[in-house]
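Support reply, case 0932

Customer input (verbatim):
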Amino acid sequence: MGIVKAFFDAVGGNLADQWQEVLEADAMDDSTVFTKGVKVRTDRRNNNRKGNSDIISDGSVIHVYPNQFMMLVDGGKIVDYTAEEGYYIVKNSSTPSLFNGQFGDSLKDAFNRIKYGGTPSAKQQAFYINLQEIKGIRFGTPSPVNYFDNFYNSELFLRAHGTYSIKVTDPLRFYAEVIPKNAARVDINDINEQYLSEFLEAFQASLNRMSVDNIRISQIISHAPELSRYLADALDESWKKLRGFEVLAVGIKGISYDEESQKLINLRNQGAMLGDPSVREGYVQGAIARGIESAGSNTAGSAQAFMGIGLGMGAGGNFAASASAANQAQMQRQQAQAAQAAPAAGSWVCACGHSNTGKFCSECGKPRPEPAGEWKCAKCGHGNTGKFCSECGSPRPAGEWTCPGCGHRNPDGTKFCPECGKPRA
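Our regenerated output:
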């Protein structure tokens, strides 16, 4: 018993007197993972009147669309299947054809372990498994999930919600382990309660891996591809190997933090901002201004208000002055450090490694090297790079060149400076 592939023209014409019905998958939407084959056409010229909705007679035609896996089932046992689109004719006298399609020999090996070896019964049926990506499966963490963030150096707690998608990778195993017995149609949401619990456990484990990878808690959403891979690894044993489906992608729509975690994040961010003395100085001055404004709006009257201002300034003035002085001192230190790090204007480094600003090295006495191609005017001593002196108009003397390394003047015919050995520029 089994199926054989048929050409479309043969199904539509020459075989019209031989087949009793044409079956296709029942309505299959984006969340349908399993459905029954239903009769879509009966030819009136056929003399066989024994068929009904559950029985597939010998010679019936089964239509399989792309991304569908069809199983011919006899008494709950799979007798043949196809993972390839097209038309197939039921032949009870034939051996199983096993059209493996995209799955290759691995599917045939799985079938050989569960194949049905009996004689055809009175209730052969066709069932279909959806091989498309099943999208939009919703998830949400019912309670906060812990996440150690190295940037904040703290254990934070977050809630997340979004969707994920799955794909059937082993339809025979999926049928045997996931689909309820005697089911005619299965929507992923009908069987998702158990798998959602497992998904959330794997979600926690995947977040732990992201924490180890030093991904900041605020960047989790932008690292959805890594999260998908971590989840696939975490669920590989229980979903792919045992049940024949796997996670393809995860989309996080939103993340929120519990109250304590949000306080820690705000405190850390505020501290980072106040580490800048200019920001801190602005904060201090703003706080003083707000205090004066608040005191000025005292409902007890202007006299008491300004008395309060005086008392406040007396009590807090020393602190404000000290804080402002500390801010100014830190800014000055930063400016001094920046100035020290930057090279002084007009400075140059001698061949001996000493830094200088004058015309001669204060360490070894060598003259400051002139820029490559520069020459000294013999008449006025002005440095030039062109053919004429820009100060007095005298022409550039021929037969000499100035070493770019040590400033030594060398005859025109030499290629290297005899003083320091550098080549002519």
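We compared this against your earlier run and they match. Two observations from our side: The longest helix spans residues 302-341. The first strand starts at residue 2 and ends at 6. Please reopen the case if you see a mismatch on your end.
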